[in-house]
């Protein structure tokens, strides 16, 4: 049995290493120890430096505690240890002499890094207003030409290699805008506008998350950033600008009317009379890969499940159970599936 022990320990370590390696290979979605964008590339060396210094401090302090305890250990009753013999003053002086320059260097390094990331390297052409809601994200793409402004939700598209400015506003409680592999966190505080920026180095899908506890469904307040090559982004933008298609048959008109009757109080579908703002803009719902802020995949099955009982999918979400009849559910789902 005893000879098995080193083998068992080694197997467990090998298993842990394997799990860790496959987790990294799978592209841990919320990894902040990697840089997929310019802001994180600036922050990352500082983060690694601070981590190295912190580990060194823990190791040195633990070593001093162990060595000090071993040197000062005396057999016999405690009363035999003479009082006042402690060399602690010398140790405090040495500690201050070593730690002060290190801490000062870190303050300077941190300040330089913060100044470098305060603004993007070039003036952004695109500004997106982010509105944090319990528990979803509204994105309003601003433009000096009002006809080019549009709104979408939960899935953000940005052109790759270009900085994008984000004006962060909150409508209810404090949220935090965080896309770990692209940039650090910025608070979203109701009543004020905080500003940040993102730039992705290469096309891809980057996961973000509200990182300020904001209530029951905080963990399901996910945002997805899709970095597109400029031409793909432009096509996406043009598609988002379009209003929903006008229904071409009586059936389709009835589907739309049922949606407006039951859902328009809270949702907007541009090109129809639906103009509510309590919930996400649904004009191009089917262009998104998930619904309910990254909680469910966006396909007809989950869409039906969500519409018929959102509370069973995301308990506490601010969309009430609509109590639809079977035919109403079918009509509304058919209408939603046209929102490409
Ligand atoms: C009282 C307001 C309200 C009503 C009425 C309402 N919704 Fe919602 N809806 C919301 C809110 C709020 C959310 C966001 C929930 C979340 O993700 O936390 C939402 C989310 C959604 C989503 C997911 C959108 C996305 O991109 O994540 C769909 C689809 C949707 N609603 C469809 C409907 C339909 C269809 C109806 C009518 C049967 C309806 N809603 C009625 C408030 C409402």
Describe the structure.
This protein is an alpha+beta fold and 340 residues long. Among the domains are: 116 residues, Sandwich (Immunoglobulin-like), CATH 2.60.40.420; 88 residues, Cupredoxins -  blue copper proteins (Immunoglobulin-like, Sandwich). It has eight helices and twelve strands. A five-stranded mixed β-sheet has the order 3-2-1-5-8, with no helix packed on it. A three-stranded mixed β-sheet has the order 4-10-9. Strands 6-7 form a two-stranded antiparallel ribbon. The chain is elongated, with a radius of gyration of 28 Å. About 3% of the residues have low confidence.
Major β-sheet profile: 5 strands, mixed
Uncertain stretches of 5 or more adjacent residues: 16-26
What CATH calls the topology of the domain at 126-241 is Immunoglobulin-like
Bound molecules: heme C
- How much strand? 15-25%
Spatial separation of the terminal alpha carbons = 64 Å
> Any idea what the radius of gyration is?
28 Å
